[in-house]
Amino acid sequence: MIVAISISPSGAADExxxxxxxxxxxxxxxxxxxxxxxxxxxxxxxxxxxDEVMAVVKAAVFKVAESSPRxxxxxxxxxxxxxxxxxxxxxxxxxxxALRT
Length: 101
Description:
UPF0045_domain; alpha+beta; Alpha-Beta Plaits; globular; Thiamine_BP; 43% helix; 4-stranded antiparallel sheet; MTH1187/YkoF-like; Thiamine-binding protein
């Protein structure tokens, strides 16, 4: 499965309104998990089996909760039997191939 998550702390912004420090802590938890992942300007994508991915999502949310009284989580999941790994790039590769035809 692939999940796209966005974790948004409330009350943890710096003087400019940025929450990047809190988000960085969540991304570090995800990277330290060893699961395939990628971060873009809106979401962090994580790939793996259901239980391991959800455990990482929970750990990342709880990490942000250490410095914020309230945490929002947006999660979108792509669950496809038989496609548990290699899809972070394979899905994009298939779209790029279709664009070339």
